[in-house]
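Extended Data, panel c. Modelled sequence:
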Amino acid sequence: MQASRPRLLLCPLQIGLAVQMHHCFDSKFLIDTWYSLGFCSSYKEVLTYEINAAVSENNVAFQVDGHFTQYIADNLDHNTATLDGCNTFHGMGMIATVTPTIGKTDRIRRRTDVKPEEIVKRAKVDIQYYNRQACDGLLKLKFEHLENVFVEDVTSKVDLLWKACWLLQPDRPSWSGFMQAIHKGRYPGQSSIIFMPMIDMNPSDTTCIFSTLHFISAQAKRSNTTPVLTFDQPL
């Protein structure tokens, strides 16, 4: 159908295959060759789709009743297929996870008039320069004394039990099936992952970390939630 009316129809199977090939091989020649044979969309259509997806992506993890939103930030490395390994991207990447999952009903509208300024506006992170003298908030924090809570972990020997079952030759399920068999209760379900902008700075730099904290706080404020952010250690 798309081959007969290429200007009116855009089948999801063809564009999905072209996007996947672009992610795996990053080859314009390969995609256009398959496009000429009718297997997928053109390379130009792939670039149009990615630009529209970048513009339509929302940076805010909307808070829904019964859902938990957590933000994660960590160093991000991207090798741009260089021969010598130089000029690779090393910065701060951020995502938001919503549990249980939230369905995305917004469709990506096809546009051919997207300007670079519109993409930059969507992925903009204001850099907040860290001033140690002005940012003395840690000195004002007061930690309350926490009582020791002793709870017996009844699942500490579960892995040993699962391995011992193999010696007794029963019908032992896999590890995931074994965990589902011994646990009862409602499973929260799969989480939704929302990609957020990246910061092109050294992730160990205090200014980069400070800017990340400000950006996440602003996103949580727009969602009317308390920000929960984890780096290598929970903050």
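The two ends are 53 Å apart (CA to CA). This feature is highlighted in the accompanying rendering.
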